[in-house]
TrEMBL record:
UniProt keyword terms in alphabetical order: Carbohydrate metabolism
EC numbers: 2.4.1.82
Name this polypeptide is given: galactinol--sucrose galactosyltransferase
Organism name: Nyssa sinensis
Superkingdom classification of source: Eukaryota
């Protein structure tokens, strides 16, 4: 039997599942089918040039009339999304692209399945590939080494393609296939997640910027704790290190941003952390600050900030006590793709003043000595910033990929040796040089689906709602005394823990290819799951976004319209897996802001209307049919953003006695009530974390409710089926209340 490949080049067309994705594919483009477990469904795009260079741009083919979503670096440090339908819409520095098409391999029909094809530009040897488009609607591969001395005339595994009918499975399978092919990074599922992810935190950055002091750290921790939202992890951000400003010439052309040329002069804390500012008393130093945080403020984890190169301007060459790092000045050279997007003031400064680059053969010694000292002070991990700067310094070191990999391997080796909880937050967005070189780093400050979990700071109610369902660490950076505790208590339980969702948040299928910031019609919908429920956050974020003309983020519509959309249980892509094989598709929906409870039949949807910067969180709980007359669904803590995150376990234990049944048909379980004097049909057993108002759906009024060992009062709304009770404050951290409900 002949098996036709799902991805092929036929007569100059790139064809996926019978649908032409690209036309006019040049003869120098090579398609190599994947082989081995996980790779067989995919293929690699390669290209051959007539001569060797350190930078190539290869046209791959014309893309027209197909919707796509891509993620691209709009500046050196950050990535955002772009939607389009043709090659010219693909921005420079595109690191991920998903294309939508129909499967025409069996002919086109009304029920022809949608096919999702992912394009992942990769690293090959010393070269990095990235996608971009041109005015002829051609998809291009930009291949570069970052070192003029490192040249090639070909790359056979530059872009990996994978296709299927479920976009989330396609992405997951593609990342795992690339992991197997490259052997240089690990999928998120194989990485150890640091324990701090489940605790609320405070970061000093926005509160103090580089003016942070030992006293300021104590003020911030005390302020949040006194308000009832105690931080259990702390990030001491930029401002604690010993640095020196290298800018001496006041007539220098570059003055704005010159602070970024400052360099590290020692691995220990600076003078601000050596004394108490108010009374000038000497203290032990960083160790004292950490001990105070842990012993007097019950902080569990303390992280400190440093740049991948040591500091923004690197390490000072031949600084006292640091001579053995063989640091030398290097001057950044940015990729044409980065230069074609948004310029950055940091790079303007470093291009003039240079960066003190620790020799890659000595960088492990640098990290290890720094981290060993921090660990001796009780520090549990590091937030590593300014990572993408290394891509600009590859000249003379084998190129950007080689230098980045050397630095990241040294960093991860030192973290493994000094911080056993895999204590590393990779700050800001990353280039693929770093993404495909990380085998340990599991927490990143932006959403890298399949590679990392995420860490996010909070700004306001709107953003807080989004972060609550992002599956990410949650920490704030408020000034001491400047907190919104009403808001924070929707995120943080009294013990300082948070209700974290199980996965990185993802856009729902129906808005994957819609632009929620610029198209004036689309709402953004993000789905996630908890252990027993699902959640969909809906946001009206129209009106502002990064502009490819002005090369910056701008407001393009000062008064966006009110928008209407809908949600349904199917928006939570894996809700059926959460519910189990016996689920019939019915769900109960709880809307966080409105407090509305609705029972949704299979396939039914619920309308949602939002003004700009409004949101709603819809919590979907699969309905459990206990008997012909009784159905039940847990909802969670009604006043928390991630309501369903409180429900950790849900079981139904049927009673031994035969349940009472109605004679004849009833149109709705709620339309006729069972007797309150009946024997219980079943006992619903739950494990719930937290305290406050707990809610569940029951089609019949429960007979009895118990929380812990005590029977408790409850309210029941026969019109909606909402069962509500109050869960007391637990005495233990992370305590899971046993709740029993007789129905």
């Amino acid at each position: 039997m002949t098996v036709t490949p799902k991805i092929s080049i036929n007569d100059g067309n790139l064809v996926v599942h019978g649908k032409t994705i690209l036309t006019g594919v040049p003869d120098n483009i090579v398609l190599t089918p994947g082989s081995g477990v996980g790779l067989a469904a995919g293929a690699f795009i390669g290209a051959i040039a007539s001569h060797s260079k350190s930078l190539h741009v290869f046209p791959v083919g014309v893309l027209e009339g197909l919707r796509f979503v891509c993620c691209f670096r709009f500046k050196l440090w950050w990535m955002t999304q772009r939607m389009g339908t043709s090659g010219k819409d693909i921005p420079l520095e595109t690191q991920f692209m998903l294309v939508e098409s129909k499967d025409n391999s069996e002919g086109e029909h009304d029920d022809t399945p949608t096919i999702y094809t992912i394009f992942l530009p990769l690293l090959e040897g010393q070269f990095r590939a990235v996608l971009q488009g041109n005015e002829r609607n051609e998809l291009e591969i930009c291949l570069e080494s970052g070192d003029n001395a490192v040249e090639t005339n070909q790359g056979l595994y530059l872009v990996y393609m994978h296709a299927g009918t479920n976009p989330f499975e396609v992405i997951n399978q593609a990342v795992k296939a690339v992991e197997q092919h490259m052997q240089t990074f690990l999928h998120r599922e194989k990485k150890q997640l640091p324990y701090f992810l489940d605790w609320f935190g405070w970061c000093t950055w926005d509160a103090f910027y580089t003016e942070v002091t030992a006293e300021g750290v104590q003020e911030g921790l005390k302020s949040l704790s006194e308000g009832g939202t105690p931080p259990r992890f702390l990030i001491i951000d930029d401002g604690w290190q010993q640095i020196g400003n290298e800018v001496k010439d006041m007539n220098c052309v570059v003055q704005e941003g010159a602070q970024f040329a400052s360099r590290l002069t020692g691995i220990k804390e600076n003078a601000k952390f050596q004394k108490n500012i108010k009374n000038n008393d000497r203290v032990i130093g960083l160790q004292h600050v950490v001990d105070e945080a842990k012993q007097h403020n019950n902080v569990k984890y303390v992280y400190v900030w440093h740049a991948l190169a040591g500091y923004w301007g690197g390490v000072k060459p031949a600084a006292a006590g640091m001579e053995h790092y063989d640091t030398a000045l290097a001057y950044p050279v940015q990729s044409p793709g980065v230069l074609g997007n948004q310029p950055d003031i940091v790079m303007d400064s470093l291009a003039v003043h240079g960066l003190g680059l620790v020799h890659p053969e000595k960088v492990f010694n640098f990290y290890n000595e720094l981290h060993t000292y921090l660990a001796s002070c009780g520090v549990d991990g590091v937030k590593v910033d300014v990572q993408n700067i290394i891509e600009t310094l590859g000249a003379g070191y084998g190129g950007r990929v080689s230098l980045t990999r050397a630095y990241l391997q040294a960093l991860e080796a030192s973290i493994a040796q000094n911080f056993p909880d895999n204590g590393c937050i990779a700050c800001m967005c990353h280039n693929t040089d770093g993404i495909y070189s990380a085998k340990q780093t599991a927490v990143n400050s932006c959403n890298l689906i399949g590679i990392c979990s995420t860490a996010c700071t909070l700004l306001q109610d709107y953003h807080s709602a989004a972060r609550s369902i992002g599956g990410c660490a949650i920490y704030v950076s408020d000034k001491p005394g400047n907190h919104n505790f009403e808001l924070l208590k929707k995120l943080v339980l009294p013990d300082g823990s948070v209700l974290r969702a199980q996965l990185p948040g993802r856009p729902t299928r129906d808005c994957l290819f819609s632009d929620p910031a610029r198209d004036e019609t689309s709402l953004l919908k993000i789905w996630n799951v908890n252990k027993c429920t699902g959640v969909v956050g809906v946001f009206n974020c129209q009106g502002a976004g990064w502009c490819k003309v002005t090369k910056k983020t701008r407001i393009h519509d000062a008064s966006p319209d009110t928008l209407t959309g809908s949600v349904q249980a199917a928006d939570v892509d894996v809700l059926a897996q959460v519910a189990g094989p016996e689920w019939n598709g019915e769900a109960v929906v709880y809307a966080h802001r409105s407090g509305e409870v609705v029972r949704l039949p299979k396939g039914a949807s619920l309308p949602v209307t939002l003004k700009v910067l409004e949101y709603e969180l819809f919590h979907f709980s699969p309905l459990k049919e206990i008997s012909a007359n009784i159905s039940f669904a847990p909802i969670g803590l009604l006043d928390m953003f991630n309501t369903g995150g409180a429900v950790e376990q849900f079981e139904v234990n049927l009673a031994d006695n035969k349940p009472e049944l109605f004679d004849g048909e009833v149109p709705c379980e709620l339309s006729t009530s069972l007797s309150e004097n009946r024997s219980p049909t079943a006992t619903v057993a739950l494990k719930v974390r937290g305290c406050g108002r707990f809610g569940a759906y029951s089609s019949q009024r429960p007979l009895k409710c118990r929380v812990g060992n005590a029977e408790t009062d409850f309210n029941y709304d026969a019109g909606t089926g909402l069962l509500a009770m109050t869960i007391p404050l637990p005495e233990e951290e992370m305590y899971r209340w046993p709740i029993e409900i007789q129905v």
